[in-house]
Amino acid sequence: MTHLTFGNELTKVYFDKEKGFLKKIEYKGRTIHLCSKLWSVQVKEGELTIADMTAFRHECYEGVLKLFWESHAAKVCVIVKNGEDGKLRFRIMTEVFGGEAVRRVRFPILEGMKFDTENYLLLTWQNGRILKNPVDTFLCKGVDVPFWVGRGKYGYEGEYPANLSFQFGAFYGQEYGYYFATEDPDAYIKTFAFDYNEGAHAMDFSVINYPENMGKTTSYCMAYDFVLKLFEGDWQTAAHIYRDWAIGQKWCKGKLAQKYIPEKLVKTDLWWLNFETTEGYSNFNLTPEELLCINQTMQKTLDCNVALHWYGWNRGVHDHDYPDYVSAEKKEQGWLEELAGWNQKFEEAGIVKFPYINARLWERTTASWEREHVHQAAIKTENGDYPHEPWAGRQLKPVCPATALWQNKVVDLCREYVLGCRFDGVYLDQIGSYNATVCFDENHPHPTGGGSWWNDSYHNMVTKVRQILGKDRIITTESCCETYIDLFDIMLVEDTTLQHIAFAALTDGNEQAVPLLGMIYGDYSLAYGSTCVLGEQNESFEFNLVRNLLWGILPCLSGVSKTWVNAPGDNSAVIKRVVYFYQENKDLILYGRLCEIPKYTCSATNSMDWVATDEQGGKHPYTDTFPAICATIWEDAQDKKQLLAYNFSESSQTMEMDGKTYEVNAKEFCKVAL
Known about the structure:
alpha+beta; 43 strands
């Protein structure tokens, strides 16, 4: 016998009997050849792999396989267990000798994953992206991944928590797929890596684990399970597998139907992000008087309650001088008192408003950097430097969220500006979107390197913010990292409509957005954002705004200008339809959840032309085709199923689903109990 075999009735893994390499997987009679080195341990002087080990043995019990490797340099143990529903669970432990120390542990490593037919990779970047034929359209091309999307060339790496919103993924073809996840309730910092395997023209997948006190500790014991499950289906199947585990974690403290939601959030029908530049000027520079006028006109024209996500509230330049939002000179001139007066007028007009405050960055060139000794609290690399984040060409440096200096600073900002200026809440940028960063400052109150301290620190910070702001003010953040949904009332899911940039440019349009937050946590978390820009062509604007709502993303606009307010144009009709449908079905969308994007047929189709823009400004035109009817299936708070659909075409259309025919009128929504 040349292999060690372990598994269950659905899935078996085969290890080389002499060395312990992972050789193949068998799933329902299919043999999948991998030949993977399974693990690697990075130490100060290099990397250790199975090839460096001089002895290998194994032990097998009922439902458990233990693999042991030893050499003069290290010993490694991998434990594989049978889990429920065909899952295989993996953990690793390692100890190094001879004055070495553990820096990173890459485990597990699955090498040579590929399909001979059309295939898809689910990445949990922000709200979720599907890459079509990822080896051919992305990995093998060697394109540089923009820093705010992740990183890599001939590969992609993203951190959890935050750069990746969920700790799972899926790679699937027509017959079967791989579901992989780390079931980590404490949100330890980790990296998911997808690399091009040139020899096999395939994909390698691995998880990079960061020990506490990395670079100094001589041992590492994985504190969570890596789960591998082979399955039949697509990204929705994988999302439902993940949901079964996810909603039992500590960040799901209760369904929305049982939780307190700020009244002003519930009453809001339309969110406005004054972020986009329109008509040759920046919406950041709109005066409070102009903003008030625009908001009042929007409320009257669209017959709805509006919330202003206010960029430029401080009369400063975006991405400059954080966290010194209001200069001493402007304070002396009475700007804060004037702003409080304007906010009272917004309140009297029934307009909700909350400011942008960055919860991650401090501008190194500000006088406050030296005055408040921020260098002591800033994140440090292994070399003692500051991580480089090239936002707007500035010297914006991430500050360690574990430090008292930064926690107190963010709380003080909220006290001075949110409370002092009569705002209805606060947008704490980047907590839910940008990656956890290992920090090596030994004077900070956390283990150097990895651990769960990043997640714990932001929980401490936002809990303090909540204590001073109270339960009735809205607290929100960028994107939708799951481990923070217990902190925020609603999350800004901005990526869904970014057909112009990011993965669309990297894959020449061979990608699409998917609504993971709604499908996994729709009854536990709310989302707005996914900006629909009024300057876009009417067809794409309508498509984005409608699909967002059917996915559970509350109506949101960007690019609203003074000209649009005076002459709303054609797209005002679709805004009214979307807002009205949300108003009529608010209980379903707030307290229910998206549970399925069903398979259905529709005779008519729509084609959408997009232009993706890469980091160098290069244009990548592509076309997507969609059914004329967009349909989703929801489950309300009483667990009753509802079909929600919208017809984009100019004539009545029918759709066939599960042997039934449904008719949807032109340019209208419909809701049908199932």
